[in-house]
Known about the structure:
Blueprint (H helix, E strand, L loop, with lengths): L8 H32 L7 H7 L3 H9 L1 H12 L4 H9 L3 H11 L4 H9 L11 H16 L16 H9 L1 H4 L2 H14 L1 H8 L2
Amino acid sequence: xxxxxxxxxxxxGNFIDQFWRxxxxxxxLARALAxxxxxRAKFNFQEMEFLARLxxxxxxxxxxxxxxxxxxxxxxxxxxxxxxxxGEQDIFGATQTEAGELIANMWHLPxxxxxAIRLHHETTCPVEEIASLVALVRVADMFVEELGYGIGExxxxxxxxxPFWQLLAQLVPSVFGEIGPVREFLRVEIVTSSALxxxxxxx
Length: 203
């Protein structure tokens, strides 16, 4: 899948490395959360959570591939405080979620993956069948940012106040009732999964 992208590393090399590290870390944390849910409740995402988080930002990759100079302008704009999706729309005429869903369609990825790509920057999920998956992968994404594996996305509110966290807390209070134990569980998981993250990001 990743071999479909060829980059000018002089233009985007540092971001590419951060991107794969972020994607791999988010995928491993999403899997860890899914495993915790499976042990406490009848949730079985059939590895969709891992794939969804691995490709959740693939639209950004496409933007960098297509227009590296414009992508650099986008990164600078975001660093100066511009909202990420607004900046993408202004510079590329589309958002990363729209671009990512087009790629998911071209690659014939499963429908839940489309939803996770399209909705992971939202605060609600209108499709009830995939709401728990979208919430799970968004929460994993936010924790990855907090744990230092981010790519410049800013957390604009505490994780525990985000509607997707609150949805998970409502669905599975035994797991998501308090954020402290989840934060510590994922902190340990990111350390113990470092070998997997390295393997996923190796050239």
